[in-house]
Every structure is written in structure tokens, then in C-alpha cells.
């Protein structure tokens, strides 16, 4: 008598595995937030403030800045300055970051997206203590103002892999 083995769809096998991997990756994210930029543009005096919640454990975290623009964004680079302040133990880290948009002489904007373009910077590494909160203050430092065609500026803070 032949034994029959039920056929299992690849979807049944791989979908739970994929869902587990996706959920597992988000566990390292401490903060991922965007601030909307008005249609009037972004002035140098317009600061964006991101609250960084308390991590569950001591360790190194990466901060990645993100920008969404309209397809008509004209700059090949956007320079921003940031101040990262933490409570006890108090710490202040200030630096600048550059978004490179890939805009060339033919005015074709790089980045990913259809109706908007998404850009990210290299990640900055910071050490956070368990229970330590922080604030991240962001402003642009471009000569021209207002900077228009930016729709959102975001920050993603996530745990470094050990």
C-alpha cells in the first residue's frame, strides 16, 4: 500500500518564516519618526525635534537621517546640522550630515520612489544607557532659504548588531 504525503504549498511554508523575520527586524528599532515640512519651505530657524525614548539596555545605537522630497527638488546636496542631547548622564553631540540626492546637470533626481523621492544618510553611532532619554534637534544649514520641495525629514534610531 502506497503512502501518500500531503503537498504543502511553498506559501504555507515560507509566509510564516518571512513574517517572523520581518517582525524580528523591527525589534531593534528604538525610534522611527518623520516631521512634515510645510509647503512654504524649510527655514534655517525651523528646528525639528525628535524625542528618543529610553532603550531597554545599554549599547550602541545607530541614527540614520531620512528625507522625502518632491521630484522637482533641485539640490544635489542638502546639509543639515544636528544636536543630540541626553539626560543623565548628560551628553551633547553636535555634527553635520549631508544628503546626496544624485541630481545631475540634466535635473534628474536620484533616490527611490514614484511620487516622492526618499534619501537616507550614513548612520551615526551613539552609545545609550538603559533608561537614558534623548532629544535630537535638526536644522538645515544651506545658504539659500527657504529650502522648498522637501516634504518630510525623518530619523531612525536602531540597535547595532553585536
- What is the tally of beta strands? 9
Number of domains: 1
Overall average pLDDT: 80
CATH class: Mainly Beta
Give the biggest sheet. 5 strands, antiparallel
Q: What is the H/E string?
A: HEEEEEEEEE
How much of the sequence lies in strands comes to 35-45%
Give the termini separation: 54 Å
Q: How big is the Rg?
A: 21 Å
Summing up helix and strand content along with how strands pair, one would put the structural category as mainly beta
Low-pLDDT stretches are 10-26
CATH topology: Jelly Rolls
| CATH architecture annotation name | Sandwich
Helix content: 10-25%
Task: Give the overall shape.
Answer: elongated
Number of helices: 1
Brief rundown of the structure:
This protein has one helix at 10-26, and strands at 29-36, 48-52, 59-69, 77-86, 91-100, 117-120, 124-128, 134-140, 150-159.
